[in-house]
Amino acid sequence: MTTIFEKIIAGELSADIVYKDEQVTAFRDINPAAPTHILIVPNKAIPTVNDIQPEDEPVVGHMIYVAKLLAEQEGIAEDGYRLIFNCNKHGGQEVFHLHLHLIGGRPLGPMVVRK
Ligand code: 5GP
């Protein structure tokens, strides 16, 4: 099934794209949780972290490298930021195309809500 992110990668759906190369596309989240909230996605459709295969290791590493570059570009590298992969129901994943959230621009508080 085609996801929203595949449509953004293909240029069929508009998004504020901040980075693109042959492996990944990065665009601003439509509902930002902080001043900087960028999604870094592989151009190849991988539904969840559970679906990552050995041959995907380079693109997953590249996603993190691009997050680092974008943090510098956004001016949030020194203060710090958070990188998040949500997986499936308990992780709160809503879009089933692998994505890395780059979130920053303010203190982000506790990593996880404690019960
Ligand atoms: P998840 O909960 O799956 O980890 O995160 C999905 C993210 O995608 C959410 O933060 C949501 O705001 C964002 N999102 C959902 N639909 C769209 C869209 O059409 N465009 C953009 N730019 N972001 C989207």
Would you give an account of this structure?
The chain is α+β, with helices and mostly antiparallel strands. It has a single domain, classed as HIT-like (HIT family, subunit A), CATH 3.30.428.10. It has 3 helices and 5 strands. The protein has a 5-stranded antiparallel β-sheet with strand order 1-2-3-5-4, covered by helices on one side. β1 and β2 form a beta hairpin. The model has no long low-confidence stretch (mean pLDDT 98). The site of guanosine-5'-monophosphate has 12 residues, from loops.
Question: How is this fold's topology laid out?
Answer:
Elements: H1 4-10, E1 17-20, E2 24-28, E3 36-42, H2 57-74, E4 81-84, H3 88-91, E5 100-104
Antiparallel strand pairs: 1-2, 2-3, 3-5, 4-5
In short:
The protein has 115 residues and is of the alpha+beta class.
**Unreliable spans:** none
Shape: globular
The ordered H/E elements are HEEEHEHE
Instruction: Please identify the top-level CATH class.
Output: Alpha Beta
Number of domains: 1
Total DSSP E strands = 5
Named once each, the bound ligands are: guanosine-5'-monophosphate
Helix content: 25-40%
Counting DSSP H or I runs of 4 or more residues, the number of helices is 3
β content, as a range?
Answer: 15-25%
| Overall radius of gyration | 14 Å
Which superfamily, in CATH terms, is the homologous superfamily?
Answer: HIT-like
| Largest β-sheet summary | 5 strands, antiparallel
CATH architecture: 2-Layer Sandwich
Report the span from N to C terminus. 35 Å
Identify the strand order in the major beta sheet.
Answer: 1-2-3-5-4
**Residue-averaged pLDDT:** 98
CATH topology: HIT family, subunit A
Structural class: alpha+beta
